[in-house]
Amino acid sequence: MKYIAPSILSADFLNLQKDILILEKAEADIIHCDIMDGQFVPNITFGPSLVKRISDISPLPLDVHLMIKQPENFIDLFADAGAKYISIHAEGNNHLDRLINQIKKHNVKAGIVVNPATPVGYIKDLLNIVDFVLLMSVNPGFGGQSFINYTKNKIVELVEIRNSIDNKFLIEIDGGVCLDNVKELADLGVDIFVAGSSIFNSKDIVRTIADFKNIFKDKY
Question: How far apart are CA 185 and CA 164, in angstroms?
């Protein structure tokens, strides 16, 4: 299965409920929520209270990507707010095993994130316990950036590891994902596609998500 996860970082926050209803109409699979604290990355977004409101109005599973310092102080709050997936960065965090297990104790899917310059080898020992790996294909902090091409090498490396172990973690990609590159990324082995500006800046969100899904139809 392949999953489309629109990132609401690119949504219209003055009409967020309207945009979320459009995502439901378009049969998006997941809503991706980028949580930024202005310290781990140079931007600030939103917190658990907004995630809770989204969870209250939408049945779509929420994928919460924590780009924050000291995520251990917020994991429980986001799980309680309704997150179904929570991911934390390999960079800047100590005790990664402990953080992954803190997420899992809530029966939430636990993911590890790596920035473009971080090698896959840094997280290799965690690949037996995580539910998914989120590859950043742009430098995190802002939407609308171009895809960093060498991320494709990491996809190949992760697929090779996944094929060699019992834990069949999902591979998620975030940054510069668009209709022009999604087929190649799917063929390489990506399972979850985070797309922000390519969806919300399009003329027709429903049609654009349908176009993404048609690329996968009858093939995966």
Answer: 20
- Parent domain of 20: 3-216
**155 close to 169: Cβ distance less than 8 angstroms:** no
Element holding 110 (H helix, E strand) = strand 109-114
The rounded distance, in Å, linking the Cα atoms of 160 and 169 is: 12
Our count of domains for the chain comes to 1
Contacts 24+ apart (CB under 8 A), 68-74: 68/35, 68/36, 68/37, 68/39, 68/40, 69/37, 69/39, 69/40, 71/99, 72/98, 72/99, 72/102, 74/35, 74/47, 74/48
What residue type is assigned to position 122 of the chain?
Answer: Y
The domain that contains 189 carries what CATH number? 3.20.20.70
More confident residue, 125 or 144: 125
Conformation bin of residue 175: beta by default, left when phi > 0, alpha when psi is -120 to 50: left
Q: Where are the alpha helices (DSSP H) in the chain?
A: 16-25, 48-57, 75-80, 96-104, 151-164, 182-188, 197-200, 205-216
Q: Which residues are catalytic?
A: 34, 174
3-state secondary structure of 135: strand
pLDDT in tens, 155-194: 999 999 999 999 999 999 999 999 999 999 999 999 999 9
